[in-house]
Amino acid sequence: MTLFEKEKIVFIGAGSMAESIIKGLLKNEILPPGQIWATNHSDDIKLNKLKTDYSIEATRDYNELFENATMIILAVKPKDVRESIDAIRSYITNDQLIISIIAGVSIDFFAEHLPDKMPIIRTMPNTSAAVGYSATAIAKGSYTTDEHLIKAKELFSAIGTVTTVEEDELHTVTGISGSGPAYLYYLAEAMEEKAIEFGLPQGTARHLIIQTFLGAAEMMNRTEESPRKLRQQVTSPKGTTEAGIQALEDHHLKRAIHECISAAVHRSRELEELYKPSTKNN
User: Cα separation of 149 and 56, whole Å?
Assistant: First the structure.
């Protein structure tokens, strides 16, 4: 018997992150499409596309949707979370596992609005889930068992790597890996613009930048050397790399990166305040 043989997984929300997870589950044969169900509030086009593209089940009949459901993945936008929870609350029981991929909404919030002693796991994937390279962090609530955690890790392993953290650490995770892909795209954007200005064709610049990012990531992955040490190893005295690094230091790039991450972490905490529960009972 496989880990998910008797599971019925229900996605509340049918956006890009839900699709990435569904795609990963099917590609890695974690479970068959007939055990995956999805719904959303009103977007028929997205819901029908999921059903057509992946042969999963899709419905807005909540009796059918939640019948024998074992795992419920909350994948709506933060602004829609209250309405979504109100709509499904009466169909939820505490023998099911709730997994949230909603940014900024705490376990305590869900615990307050769902049945008592509800197993809840909060996660922070990133958009690289679309290509199977998400860096996902997960945090568990008080009533989450080891078996629940194992299943969640297996599920998110289908779209990348999984790291277990304390819930409060998810704010920092958001600032590092949750928003991180956008920081790297921003750097790539700047590199590509300058390469084109110096005369490289856009396609050539893009290829070189992508391969440079991939190579640097693989170097960090394969060695125990720190990023600082790796940088120093390729920075020859009086060379081109040293000249480039000096320009970055002259423009205080490291300080800007620190402030960038701090701003993202601060905003994550602000968002959580918007969904602060009146009590703590997870």
Answer: 24
